[in-house]
Amino acid sequence: MTAAGTEAAATSATGDAQAGRQPTVAGVEAGEKPGRGRRVILWRHGQTSWNVDRRFQGTTDVELTETGIGQARRAARLLASLKPDVIVASDLQRAANTAAELSTLTGIDVIHDEGLRETYAGVWQGLTHEEIIAQYGNEYAAWKRGEPVRRGGGELETEVADRAAPVVLRHADKLPEDGTLVVVSHGGTIRTTIGRLLGLESRHWESLGGLSNCCWSVLGEGARGWRLLEHNAGTLPEPVLGDDD
Fold this sequence. Notes:
two-stranded antiparallel sheet; alpha/beta; single chain; Rossmann fold
């Protein structure tokens, strides 16, 4: 979203608040349940110093920067308006501390699950992309082509989905009919989980694109399974109006 679009969204939300209205979410008031099935919000953690350095984190337990903490607090204020029923997070501190900001606002205890950790990347962890290209160029190129690669001798993307998607489904299955689950995890894990829940072949998961720090994607439960409602969002959505809503 452009800076102008972000400012407009913030102005709209402020206007609603001043008028005593909740911001609208997908055509309903944010304080109301949408009446359109269960929803899963997959929220990436805030910024870390390794993100800034473009250094592979994987399962290394890197903390949030001050910028990352601020991102988490701002995003949490928006997500709290969606009235989540359950919050589950990776146990790595960058995700756990991001989730804690939403927990503070909602009063909902965070459930931590190591199944939501980022992809284990073996010897790549701690290296920058430039260092990886210099030392493991062929492996890096194969990964970028979408080939199944154990980056640094670590996990395959399908193995990440094998452990993460069941965690999401287990908690989603316990939601009330129109409930909302917030999952706080990592960019790679979220992408593979979305791909698995949408039924996409693993070679197409890369087409989903990445998530910016503290942005999220939303899956909605439809008659034919889960569908992607938003991807890499950082503001509350506008209503979907049209023949395909």
